[in-house]
Design a protein that fits this description.
The structure is a single chain. The chain is α+β, with helices and mostly antiparallel strands. 43% of the residues lie in helices and 24% in strands. The strands form 4 sheets. Strands 1, 2, 3, 4, 5, 8 and 9 form a 7-stranded antiparallel β-sheet that branches. A 3-stranded antiparallel β-sheet has the order 10-11-12. α1 runs antiparallel to α5 and α2 packs antiparallel against α3. The chain is elongated, with a radius of gyration of 29 Å. The protein starts with 7 loop residues before the first helix and ends in a 5-residue tail after the last strand.
Length: 296
């Protein structure tokens, strides 16, 4: 049998209906609000731990690598090579010198083979002249011929690293690799690890140096971008960040840009904290910014 409400009855019915629905609606809105807040808090915490964890992992890799650099710089073949470059006035002739160089090339190649992100391994004499050099080209290791070795005395990292005593490790800022005075093409962002090499009498005679391809760090950033759908930046301590363009149909292009270019997107206080090596998170409108330094 059909049921109809008319007049006063219908008004009373709808009044009770609204009175019952309003608390339910309010409770629902409050629940949604707290659920969103809880989800946002969880996202902030997870992102902070993710960024810090990846930075710490890179730091551990760098620590391991610096230990290897320190050990190899004190090896007998490298010390012998330092002695030879002094005895021969920097000239790299003679059978014994060639033998020492071949041993170092094998050692350098084995070292680079163990670390796929190593782009170059080199020994430079006190004048900045490359004596032994191994390059990675795609998946191959290349022993650079003597005629193709370069002088790097004018590069900032050579002068800065040579000021250190043997045994101390120099870590360069992130920048683009330079060959024969020009930025290499395609661009290769690198970080250099170097330490002075002493001869058998303890006198500083040269520099052992490796270049790490920044793909090691870029890959870590890309994984986070893919997972969170955000934007990632890699800063150096000199006030620059690595920018990459990978437009469809175009070759990948890298460049170092000044941090001030990000002023319209990120607050100055946040950028100062990042460059100052601070770790933390900040909520900016609809964005969550997490940052962590990589210890070297």
């Amino acid at each position: 049998m059909p049921f109809h409400l008319r007049g006063l009855s219908s008004r009373i019915y709808f009044a009770f209906l609204i009175a019952g629905a309003i608390p339910v609606l309010i409770a629902g809105l409050v629940g949604i609000h707290f659920s969103i807040q809880a989800l946002r808090t969880e996202t902030v915490n997870h992102l902070e731990h993710e960024v810090a964890g990846r930075a710490d992992a890179i730091g551990r890799f760098i620590e391991q690598l610096t230990s290897e650099v320190s050990y190899l710089s004190g090896s007998s073949p490298l010390r012998e090579l330092a002695d030879l470059t002094v005895q021969r006035g920097g000239q790299r002739g003679g059978q014994l010198s060639r033998d020492a160089r071949r041993r170092m090339e094998r050692d350098f190649a084995a070292f680079a083979q163990a670390y796929p992100y190593i782009y170059q391994v080199r020994y430079l004499d006190a004048r900045g002249q490359e004596v032994v050099r191994v390059d990675r080209q795609k998946d191959r290791l290349i022993l650079v011929a003597e005629d193709d070795l370069q002088n790097k005395a004018d590069r900032y990292y050579f002068a800065e690293a040579m000021r250190l005593p043997p045994g101390q490790i120099y870590v360069s800022p992130l920048d683009l690799n330079v060959e024969r005075g020009r930025v290499e093409r395609p661009e290769r962002p690198v970080i250099r690890f170097a330490t002075p090499v002493a001869d058998s009498s303890g006198v500083k005679r040269g520099l052992f140096i490796i270049n790490i391809h920044a793909e090691l760090f870029i890959g870590q950033l890309q994984q986070m971008v893919d997972a969170y759908g955000g934007t990632a930046y890699l800063f150096d301590r000199e006030g620059f960040y690595l920018a990459r363009s990978a437009a469809a149909g175009e070759a990948e292009h890298f460049e170092m840009r000044p941090v001030k270019d990000l002023a319209a997107r990120l607050p100055a206080s946040l950028l100062a904290g990042i460059l100052g090596g601070k770790r933390g998170t900040l909520e900016l409108d609809d964005w969550i910014v997490a940052h962590s330094p990589v210890s070297t």
